[in-house]
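Hey team,

Filing this mostly as a record. A colleague (T.K.) asked me to run one chain through the structure pipeline before their review meeting, and I want the input and output archived in the tracker in case anyone asks later how it was produced. No errors, nothing strange. Just documentation.

Input sequence:
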Amino acid sequence: MLSLRQAKSLHGKLDLPPSPDLFLLAVLTSLASGRKTVISPVNDTPLIRLWTETLKGMAEFAFNDGICTVSPLAIEHSSSFVLIPYDMLPYRDLSVFILLGMGKTVALRSASRKRLETWQAKARKFGFVLDISQFDQDEGLSMSSAPDTLSESALVEEDDISPLIGLYLGMRRSCSFQIDFPFSNPLRPVAQAFGFELNVKSMIQKETDPIARRIQMMQKKKRDSSGQQFTVTADFSKCIAGDDSVTITLPGDEILSSIMAAAKCLFLKGSFVVNNMPLETWATPVLAFIRKMGAKISVQETSRTSFGSAGMLTVQKCDLVGRKVECKPSSIFYGHLPSMAVLAAFAEGQSVFRNLEDLRNDQPDGIDTLESCIRALGARLGEMPDGIVMEGRRDFDGFDLAESLPPHISGSFALAGLKCVGATSINDDLLKQRWPAFESILSECFEFRT
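Output structure:
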């Protein structure tokens, strides 16, 4: 158990450890491409070892001084079956559908039947047939049929993006479709590092005449985002030629960056910098949320990684006011939602999180799990079929979370415990798998009340 007491300030500089979630996504892209891949930096943690052990039937992994070399096995030697721990799996739609596209049978430990049926229905929407099978105590999916081409009339919604491009990457095929929302997905930059094409182009014609352009800009301000139209073109049929390995550089852990960004909003005393933070839209929903809440933040790009920009974050001012958030796509918000809920608990006024109905497909119910943690903290909340309504307040006593929870939840509520007046204890079994040094990070960055 992680024992916590009230902190009074947050100071110093935190160099984020490399992201284990993006490590897994890089490995899956390597498997789909068949290309030897060198990934760095990589920390030797229980979670990294879990993923390499899970996928050892498909690739050989060699570690040396913070570098992991992934050598995919030839098709005839590669396992056609993989058992994945669902509760620790990041970017779930993307990860599972890449493997399904590769022709793998994917069994999921602790995944609900409802979750598998939801994925089955999502694939059917685009002409793919997934079969559900029983494997001892767990159920899994395999793909038995795929369409020759993606229908031009297919309506692609925000939560369809990850499954769709995951399938086409796994199959090493091309597709094109239209969307009416901004495209943001971690596969886009890393796919390009392998030589794949994943492009997004606006369908709105650019005006060359300056007067017409000015009129167009004025009209654009009056239109909402539904007026946007984009064409997404993905070509996974060809990657970088030659025998050279693909080099992938990882940014910092996007989940820990959200937790620490939220922490600085709650502890304004002291100067604190988060370094090596991934800055792409898909990695920073918490930053968008705290901006809406009234925080003034400074972001400076310091490097380019295979997953886009990374840099430094400082929070200059923060008067937290509750806000409404449309959590789309849910697969991107999933890991960051607990940090946002903790911020809402300490904010002035009401916060609303919508479009979370997909979490109800898990067992236990994903919304119920988060609500139980919020209740343990002591915050007021209201239930909704597709989300959560919270009423913030300033002070809470300590609380206990004895249940083993995924790291993005336990880590976020550890932050809440540091803000509480009394003592807090949190089950850190899964937390230590992802961040073995989590307790040390807290002790080094926070100053505690005596």
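Quick notes for T.K.: The two ends are 21 Å apart (CA to CA). The longest strand covers residues 296-305.
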